Amino acid sequence: MDPAFWQGRRVLVTGYTGFKGSWLTLWLLSLGAEVWGYALAPEPERALFIDLGLDQAPSSSNGGRLHHHLGDVRDLEALKRWAANAQPQVVLHLAAQPLVRRSYEDPLGTWATNVQGSLNLLEALKPLQHPCAVVMVTTDKVYANREWDYGYRENDRLGGHDPYSASKAAAELAIASWRSSFCGVAVHQTPRLAIATARAGNVIGGGDWAEDRIIPDAMRALAAAERVGVRRPEATRPWQHVLEPLGGYLLLAEKLASAEAEAGAFNFGPSLEANRSVRELVEAALGHWPGQWDDRSDPQAPHEAGRLHLQIDKAHHQLGWQPRWPFATTVERTVGWYRAVDEGALPLQCCLADLQSYQEAEVDAR
């Protein structure tokens, strides 16, 4: 990443009050970007966005500035007005209904947010009169999951069993159709938007307080001196620290802006050794915060994929991107964050320490 690229750059971030959005906003502010946020209010129980004080401070010490706006991506007219105010040079679209189990409870809301919300954003950006790089974030779950032992590539078949996965696959199709139809030099098209989608693996890291995610659930249990309940211990996922895909999104945006990357889909996942079972993740976490776990598998539970893995060759060859932290470091930094906060450390200090460590790892890797 080129830090100078982001200094003073106008960046529209949807979903900036969420877990990944909060980390991304903090990172952009540290780079001196002018962030225009658009999102629903943070979750009422607990949110990293509030813990970091992002709701109170309009600027960072490095000169970045944050413009707040609460809104729903399903509201096209509100989105149009905010995009017109922001006049973004980069857009990072993270707004979504991101939980598989919640998608069973609210399938229509999930589809409306993940599909129509994505199209609303693209429509809101169409009137821009200057170049804009757009990264639309989806998920590793967009692929038709065949429970393979090898990873999915960007040109593999899309699909989805549960409403969340299917809605994200549908969003990929809708975004690709919109790009083919409305990006160009014809009278009905715009030549100014460079649009790519980003498919990330399962992210973990400090500050995720969502329900029905293994790390937040485990950290809450350990803080309360309770046993960790694990509902699918043998399911495998491509575990990666939240900073890994976020760094990929930022690099992709830079390459799109300079026409060094194609407008298409990119996988951002960990190295092969980090494709581990939930059992292995929990046992690794307990090595840093001692406790016990129980197998709470429920054969009547809604369907979730058993095996997931991504191939990341395209991001490596076209962007020069690769994961920086191995599985052991990812777990250590994640559990260390929660344990430090439980013992009284400030979340902002913990996030900045992780960000500094990750950036130093990037330099070391090169």
User: Which sequence of SSEs, written as H and E, runs from N to C?
Assistant: HEHEHEHEHHEHEEHEEHEEHEHHH
Q: What is the level-2 CATH architecture name?
A: 3-Layer(aba) Sandwich
- Could you state the CATH homologous superfamily? NAD(P)-binding Rossmann-like Domain
CATH class type? Alpha Beta
**Low-confidence sequence ranges:** none
A few lines on this structure:
It contains 13 helices and twelve strands. By secondary structure, it is α/β, with parallel strands linked by helices.
Keywords:
366 residues; alpha/beta; Rossmann fold; 7-stranded parallel β-sheet; 13 helices; 42% helix
Give the topology.
Blueprint: H1 3-6, E1 10-14, H2 19-30, E2 34-38, H3 48-51, E3 65-67, H4 76-86, E4 90-93, H5 100-105, H6 107-125, E5 132-137, H7 163-182, E6 193-200, E7 202-204, H8 214-223, E8 228-230, E9 236-241, H9 243-257, E10 265-268, E11 275-277, H10 278-286, E12 293-295, H11 313-319, H12 327-342, H13 347-365
Helix pairs in contact: 4-6, 6-7, 12-13
